[in-house]
Amino acid sequence: MSTVVVGYVPKPEGEAALRAAVSEAKRREVTLVVVDSHRGGRDFDSDAADDAEASLTTVKALLEESGVDYEIRQLVRGYEPSEDLLSIAEASDAELLVIGLRRRSPVGKLILGSNAQRVLLDAHCPVLAVKGS
Q1: What is the DSSP string of 85-102?
Q2: Torsion over CA of 104, 15, 70 and 62, rounded to 10 degrees?
């Protein structure tokens, strides 16, 4: 079964990616897989886990309201988010991968974020990159 996979972070670029992914999943009539990846380690304590769970509550409400079939995969494995996103997209037979990009300064535009760059270069399927508001 084909899917649309989206990388979610609780930031404007993650929200924009989620909205675009919901729209694409509806249009394509496929399941949406939301990937919420955290590196883990010392910085991912109980407070960070509570914050991540709270942001996913909001995501679940939006997905329920949208009417699309969905899965949410929250990962804390120590991998880079791009690794998690790419592996889930391939395992899910994704027909589209959606990521959010943040605005950058003129100098920052010369260098794309490392996670975004890896996804754009290594994905086995088309990638839709959307800007956060």
Answers
A1: HHHHHHHTTEEEEEEEE-
A2: 180
What gap in Å lies between CA 100 and CA 49, rounded to an integer? 22
Residues 71/105, Cβ–Cβ less than 8 Å: no
* CA–CA dist 96, 98 (Å, integer): 7
Task: Supply the pLDDT for residue 115.
Answer: 81
Rg of the chain's alpha carbons, rounded to an integer? 14
Q: Average pLDDT across each block of 10 residues of the chain; the chain has 133 residues. List them in order.
A: 90 93 97 84 58 79 94 80 92 95 61 76 94 80
Do residues 25 and 128 make contact, with C-beta atoms less than 8 angstroms apart?
no
Distance CA 71, CA 74 (A): 10
Structure tokens given for 123: 């994905």
Specify the pLDDT at position 81.
85
pLDDT at residue 130, as a whole number: 93
CA 62-67-69 angle, 5° bins: 100
